[in-house]
Write a structure and sequence with these properties.
Layout (H helix, E strand, L loop, with lengths): L1 H6 L2 H31 L1 H12 E6 L6 E2 L5 E13 L4 H4 L3 H8 L3 H10 L6 E7 L1 H8 L7 E9 L7 H4 L1 E2 L5 E3 H5 L1 H5 L3 E7 L5 E9 L7 E2 L4 H17 L4 E8 L5 E7 L18 H4 L9 H11 L8 E2 L4 E4 L2 E4 L6 E2 L1 H7 L2 H9 L3 H10 L26 H7 L9 H12 L3 E2 L14 E2 L3 H10 L21 E11 L2 E15 L6 E8 L8 H4 L1 H15 L18
Parallel strand pairs: 2-10
Antiparallel strand pairs: 1-8, 2-3, 3-4, 3-5, 6-7, 8-9, 11-12, 11-21, 13-16, 14-15, 17-18, 19-20, 20-21
Length: 569
């Protein structure tokens, strides 16, 4: 044995000892490092791991719904999925781009170019607003670096029927037009934030903790009745097409509360079709477009005359040979009417009669009546950008200004303002606040005309719908209707154009106890007539007839039967 040990070379023994020592030192070093990592630096390493896996995520708040007065949805938010990547993920993602393009649309090259252009940014959207049913195909690819965010997209079940009033929200659900814009802060809610764990592919693994709570947007209930809105939209669209008109609008108010029951405009647009939105089409003409009211102002002239005591209902008005001169202007009736009363003035829509009555009024009394019913200022309905209208202060009037104003020229109103003005007559002389939001309690209003004058005006406004009147086409079977036609020449670059007109009708029903006030405006009709009694009055008749049935208004113009009728079982 000793001889064998002596036979092992000395150099081998040295090398063996060195290797054993090195192995022992390495083992001790690794053991020490393990102790250091597991015991001394564990908290630091855990924080580094958390920084790589734990992320802060936004919880998108669902926008509140917009509903009609009966709870029918006009705007709702549906869940959608949006996908994004960090631009540095392009190389890892490149093999997946062809299949992503099949779902997202476009080509793989276009997706790559979009990501490349975003170099230096935190992220780039690849696709937004994808329905969950389609997003599953993307998730199944397990593409590295592709991130998903659950969002919401706005949908409008009524489409173009309520588009002008409701408006629309953008891709980030921020209100951009209509009530979506006006009540954006009410509807939008507040996004929440939370900590989440994601895997190496960026996929959500689990929630850790909430950072800030989510607050869902609040619902908005309108005074609008979708059934009446649909009827008004259909009738207005047909009338604009039949008369080859440039545009049109209808406003209907609840005479008891001031709620807007319907507000439609033509041309219309579908807020669900985002690719075809054109600014000219989504303009709400009922609240934004100004026009001269024409003969629809004559009842207010008569009301001012009655309030002032300068005229009585039966007092004769001498319209002479059918024309009157005020300053250098000659005002004419189509047919000489001779001596008439206030009822005939309205029934035959006499320009000379209205001028004669107005010129006997003190300017400030006439102006106070017009401003009292709301001319010259917005209705404060809350619709964004609502027009104020135009009415000069009486201090700046010349006699000819007062004369032409008596038959509706020299001032400008919106359809919404005109409806509010006639609502004063329908409510017994009180002006109610116009509300786009449903009113739960009947407001008291502010008195601007005496109840006696308002009652007289209601009787007088039934005259235009009677025999020989200008508004027989506005009658509603079974109901007494009070209202007035209007036909104005439009102002062009060279003055008033006798070939271009605005056709109007405004009224309320039932006359015995008004429930609805409605205005019909047809702008620039060029076929099948242009007078308000021909063009606007029939639309009023059909829309109001349907609305009265829907609100359950009892008939007040039913002939008394000579015998008792027994209903059969």
């Amino acid at each position: 044995m000793g001889r064998r040990a002596q036979a092992v070379p000395r150099g081998f023994r040295i090398r063996f000892a060195v290797c054993a020592a090195a192995l022992a030192v390495s083992t001790l070093f690794l053991a020490g490092r393990a102790v250091q990592l597991q015991l001394l630096e564990s908290e630091f390493l855990e924080s580094r791991a958390d920084a790589q896996q734990v992320m802060e995520a936004k919880i998108v708040a669902r926008r509140g719904r917009i509903l009609d007065r009966n709870g029918q949805p006009l705007a709702v938010s549906a869940p959608v999925d949006s996908f994004w990547v960090h631009p540095d993920s392009l190389e890892k993602l490149r093999p997946y781009l062809p299949r992503l393009a099949q779902v997202f649309g476009g080509t793989a090259g276009q997706l790559a170019e979009r990501i490349e252009r975003a170099r230096g940014r935190e992220f780039v959207w690849l696709k937004r607003g994808l329905p969950p049913s389609r997003s599953q195909a993307v998730l199944d690819l397990k593409a590295p670096g592709l991130q998903l965010r659950r969002e919401y997209r706005r949908y409008y079940p009524a489409g173009e029927i309520a588009g002008h009033l409701v408006g629309f929200a953008g891709i980030d659900e921020n209100g951009q037009e209509g009530l979506e814009l006006a009540f954006d802060s009410w509807l939008k809610g507040r996004d929440g934030r939370k900590q989440v764990v994601r895997d190496r592919l960026g996929r959500h693994v689990r929630d850790i903790a909430g950072i800030s709570p989510l607050e869902r947007g609040r619902d908005l209930r309108l005074g609008l009745d979708l059934r009446i809105q649909y009827l008004a939209h259909s009738e207005l669209k047909e009338a604009v097409e039949h008369h080859n008109a440039r545009s049109g609008s209808i406003v209907m108010l609840d005479a008891w509360t001031g709620d807007v029951l319907a507000m439609v405009s033509q041309p219309s647009f579908n807020p669900n079709d985002r690719g075809r939105l054109r600014p000219g089409n989504y303009r709400n003409r009922a609240a934004l477009d100004l026009f001269e009211p024409g003969s629809t102002i004559k009842p207010l002239v008569v009301a001012a005359a009655l309030e002032s005591g300068a005229w009585t209902p039966g007092e004769p008005i001498d319209t002479g040979p059918g024309h009157i001169r005020v300053g250098s202007k000659i005002i004419r009736d189509r047919t000489p009417l001779g001596v008439i009363d206030l009822a005939t003035l309205l029934r035959r829509s006499s320009q000379v009669g209205a001028t004669t009555v107005a010129m006997k009024l003190e300017p400030h009394r006439f102006w106070e009546t017009l401003t009292g019913v709301g001319f010259g200022r917005a209705t404060e309905s809350g619709f964004p950008g609502e027009a104020d209208g135009s009415l000069d202060n009486y201090k700046y009037w010349k006699p000819v200004d007062q004369a032409v104003m008596a038959y509706g020229y020299g001032l400008a109103v919106t359809a919404l303002q005109l409806a509010r003005a006639y609502a004063v007559l329908a409510t017994g002389g009180r002006t109610l606040p116009v509300s786009l939001i449903r009113t739960e309690d009947r407001p008291g209003g502010v008195r601007v005309l005496s109840a006696h004058t308002a009652a007289l005006m209601t009787e007088l406004l039934e005259q235009p719908l009677g025999p020989g009147g200008t508004a027989t086409a506005a009658r509603v079977p079974g109901y007494r209707v009070a209202g007035k036609t209007g036909t104005t020449e439009k102002l062009g670059p060279e003055g008033y154009d006798s070939e271009r007109h605005t056709a109007l009708f405004v009224g309320f029903a039932p006359a015995s106890r008004p429930r609805v006030v409605a205005v019909v405006v047809i702008d620039d009709p060029s076929a099948n007539g242009y007078f308000g009694g021909q063009v606007a009055a029939p639309v009023f008749s059909r829309v109001v007839a349907g609305a009265l049935r829907l609100v359950g208004a009892p008939m007040d113009d039913v002939p008394q039967a000579g015998r008792t009728l027994v209903a059969a079982r």
